[in-house]
Write a structure and sequence with these properties.
The chain is an alpha/beta fold and 296 residues long. It is built from 11 helices and 12 strands. It folds into 2 domains: 234 residues, TIM Barrel, CATH 3.20.20; 41 residues, no CATH class. Belongs to the HpcH/HpaI aldolase family.
């Protein structure tokens, strides 16, 4: 059986990634009481410019407190702000599990951050290469054209997240969606990010859901994300966590199918294709089955 509930946190799976303001220990404490698989302590959008320096110190303290089983990431400020390196230098002594890089333009940005991390890890006594990188990869019009450059850019790259809020400003759009459905530019960004993550063999992460009280809509959007291949979703409110975690759980029918597929190939290790319940299955089906059960 795949891990779920608290066991999923212990197994290091990522379904839910909850943003927490980097200047609010109170909100961090509340988020730590929930079941998000990862907390993203945010130094970017949720912290005003005059509080950036203070937030770095508070974020370091949050990282060092390690109150639960959650993976802890830090979203730094974008490279074009000139604040990224100072953010990294301030928080790396807290040994975050990963860094979230906003407004990433492509693989070169990942390589730049990876170079800094290598030096900062060595200085902090952290195993070099241990800190992962997740990129928010669709926040500008130009970033869409860099999506194909993530494949092979760095072994640190762990995920690509698509985002709609900043993309809207970049495009000069007046509306992102209507009736709970994204308009075509955002569907394009979503789909290309999903494909870029699959090509790079990293986690595809769905964007935040901004209608805070519409839990039915959140569940519908998350199930659609899982259906299409996303493995995690970013969140901005603690009450979204349980809905998202449940939506990413495989159904009993999916578990049963996956177990049958894995057992069939285990019993026929030299076969490339097999017949199962009247259907032909091959190695892509085996990979899909392992993904359902949380196996690598």
């Amino acid at each position: 059986m795949p891990p779920h509930g608290d066991d999923a946190q212990e197994a290091g799976l990522m379904r839910s990634m909850l943003f927490v303001p980097g200047d609010s220990p109170r909100k961090f404490e509340k988020a730590s009481e929930g079941k998000a698989d990862a907390l993203i302590i945010d130094l970017e959008d949720s912290v005003v410019t005059e509080k950036k320096a203070e937030a770095r110190g508070l974020t370091l303290a949050m990282l060092k407190s390690r109150p639960g089983p959650h993976q802890l990431y830090v979203r730094v400020n974008a490279l074009d702000t000139g604040m990224t390196l100072a953010d990294l230098a301030a928080v790396m002594p807290g040994r975050p599990d990963g860094i979230v890089l906003p407004k990433s333009q492509g693989g070169d940005d990942v390589r730049q951050v990876a170079t800094w991390l290598e030096a900062l890890e060595a200085a902090a006594g952290i195993t070099v290469g241990a800190t992962r990188i997740v990129c928010v990869a669709t926040e500008t019009a130009g970033s869409i054209f860099g999506l194909g450059s993530y494949k092979g850019c760095s072994p640190r790259l762990a995920g690509l997240m698509w985002g709609a809020e900043d993309l809207s400003a970049s495009l000069g759009a007046t509306e992102k969606s209507s009736g709970g459905v994204f308009h075509s530019p955002y569907r394009l960004a979503r789909d290309l990010c999903l494909m870029a993550a699959a090509a790079a063999e990293v986690a595809p992460i769905d964007t935040v859901y901004t209608d805070i009280d519409n839990l039915a809509g959140l569940e519908q959007e998350t199930r659609a994300a899982r259906r299409d291949g996303f493995s995690a979703k970013a969140l901005i409110h603690p009450k979204h966590v349980d809905v998202v975690n449940a939506a990413f759980e495989p159904t009993e029918a999916e578990r049963s199918w996956a177990e049958k597929v894995i057992a069939a190939f285990a019993g026929n290790p030299n076969s490339g294709t097999l017949r199962l319940d009247g259907q032909m299955i091959d190695k892509p089906h085996l990979r899909a089955a392992k993904k359902i059960l949380g196996q690598s």
